[in-house]
Amino acid sequence: MIRIRQVKIPISNDNNDHLKKKISHILKTKESDIKSFTIIKKSIDARDKNNILYVYEFDVDTDLENKILSNNNSSDIFLSPKEEYVFPESGNEKLDNKIVIVGSGPSGLFCSYLLTELGYKPIIIEQGEKVEDRVKTVNKFFETNKLNELSNVQFGEGGAGTFSDGKLNTLIKDKMFRGKKVFEIFVENGAPEEIMYLQKPHIGTDILREVIINMRNKIINRGGEFLYNTKLTNLVIEDNKIIGIEINNKERIDCSVLVLAIGHSARDTFYMLNNNHLEMKSKPFAIGLRIEHPSDMINKSQYGDNYKLLPPASYKLTYQTSTGRGVYSFCMCPGGFVVNASSEKNRLVVNGMSNYKRDERNSNSAIVVTVDSKDFGNELFSGIEFQRRLEEKAYDLGKGFIPVQLYKDFKNNKVSEELGEIIPNTKGKYTLSNLNDLFNKEIVDSIKEGIDNFGRKIKGFDREDAVLLGIESRTSSPVIIKRNEEFQSNILGVYPCGEGAGYAGGITTAAIDGIKVAEEIIKKYKID
Fold first, then answer.
1. pLDDT value, residue 528
2. Is residue 139 pLDDT above 90, yes or no?
3. Looking at residue 11, which CATH number applies to its domain?
4. Is there a domain that residue 50 lies in?
5. Do 329 and 245 lie in a common domain?
6. What is the pLDDT of residue 95?
7. Are residues 253 and 313 in the same domain?
8. Which residues does 510 contact at the CB level (< 8 Å), separation at least 6?
9. Which of 105, 366, 392, 419 has CA atoms 20 to 30 A from the CA of 474?
10. What is the pLDDT of the chain when averaged over all its residues?
């Protein structure tokens, strides 16, 4: 196979016949000499909006490899490298009891999936419901505002990512091809094959739910076991080693290995772990507001008049304020919804969500400001309590509903009395409010300064009737659960994992971290 990079194709010519013709031209060979080709990467170059290009990377199957390579001196043409994930060899230590994985979000699911692929038989406990029941519960919450604190947008099978855009892009280096393994598993279980090569892959909340069900069924068929509506309530420790857990405040499960894939909103679990002397430390995170714009406005700004020929546009914006605060867009959802993502009564938080087609009327993202111990204090759980106070304010501002404000009114510090052209596209009811009351002046001024700057990068971003919604406070975990080079905590046999433990930020990085933890378990223990 020959790898060929930097193949540029006008968006109007994006079809297999033209691709094959372009490949043969670059390789200086006949089209008939190309047996097949596989897309390795595909991105959009929109720097010149009058000449937007797709940029491809291919693997080409041909019998003329040596001749083609000798006739081409380009650094973009070379023999295809081997890019495969390799399982580690299993260890020699016997498992006295079960492997228990707490949480069925991306890190827990992928840890389980990898273990069962080799013959281990973990028990996965999840305080929320299986995804089919969870979707019904969440939809009922959107309609009635009656919250189930154990199963909601944050908790339940699939984790918080189940009600998101399903973005899979990541910036981490992947020399072991764990990310490729993650995508292969997704595709095996029903995700679109394009995620294997798109620069900014996504699944969408609608398809992701089906993928999760398929992954669950494979884990069960291989010997794994799921226990839903099952909450971790205590640890059983002997000689500084995990020997069991308590669930639902009454039952015990003996275990030799405990994977903590608990998610970034598992606040009461963090407190319980601290009571058991599991070592943790506080970490910075970010807080802010969601902002909605018309999808067509964002698409046209990013792509120009040809935007309808292209997939819905995303953006990533950063800015440093005059006071040194970092402001940035987070979890951008093209053609999506803003959802009431609350998980505690009398507290309110929002998030973004898109279906696979991303065809809703508004696009949204969070505009967030970095915060650290100078903002919330130096105690271990100061960040959690800071989040809680803000979420209580948001709940009170909206009288239980999502508080909403026009950008012009946010700048003028007045309650919005009516909407403009942009109608909020939310899951969960909303009410007009004054979001200035959520934050201190420095945070408010930072958000305003950031949005005004972003208006110079994307035309209309700072328009007066842009809709702001609050509060975005769960951008990442407010704590890190410490672990050593073997991924174990100070309590032996306990493996902190994923976003909640502070080692990931998004679906793909959480899934990769789940795979890393699975590898450490495999290297240490014999198969069940």
1. 74
2. yes
3. 3.30.70.2700
4. yes
5. no
6. 94
7. no
8. 105, 106, 107, 110, 159, 161, 261, 498, 499, 504
9. 419
10. 96
Q: Which domain holds residue 363?
A: 285-472
Query: Tens digits of per-residue pLDDT, 466-480?
Result: 999 999 999 999 999
pLDDT score at 232: 98
Count H helices and E strands in the chain, helices first.
Answer: 13, 23
Which residues lie below 8 Å from residue 267, measured CB to CB, with a gap of 6+?
Answer: 344, 384, 388
How crowded is the C-beta side of 10, counted as CA atoms within 13 Å? 6
The pLDDT, as a whole number, for residue 13 is: 87
Q: Are 307 and 278 in the same domain?
A: no
pLDDT at site 169 = 85
- Check whether residue 31 and residue 154 sit in a common domain: no
**CA pair distance 501, 111, nearest whole angstrom:** 14
- Give the span between the Cα atoms of 233 and 297, in whole angstroms: 48
Which pLDDT does position 173 carry in this prediction? 82
Verify that 205 and 125 share a domain, yes or no.
yes
Per the listing, tokens 């007066």 go with 464
Please report whether residue 393 resides in a domain.
Answer: yes
Supply angle C-alpha 288, 404, 166, rounded to 5: 60
486 lies in some domain: yes
Q: Give start and end residues of each alpha helix (H) in 368-506.
A: 373-376, 382-397, 407-412, 441-454
d(CA 451, CA 329): 10
pLDDT in tens, 179-188: 999 999 999 9
Are residues 218 and 155 part of one domain? yes
In a domain, residue 468? The reply is: yes
Q: Is the pLDDT of residue 246 over 90?
A: yes
pLDDT score of 71 = 86
Q: Give, in order, the Cα–Cα distances in Å from 117 to each of 224, 256, 449, 506.
A: 10, 20, 50, 23
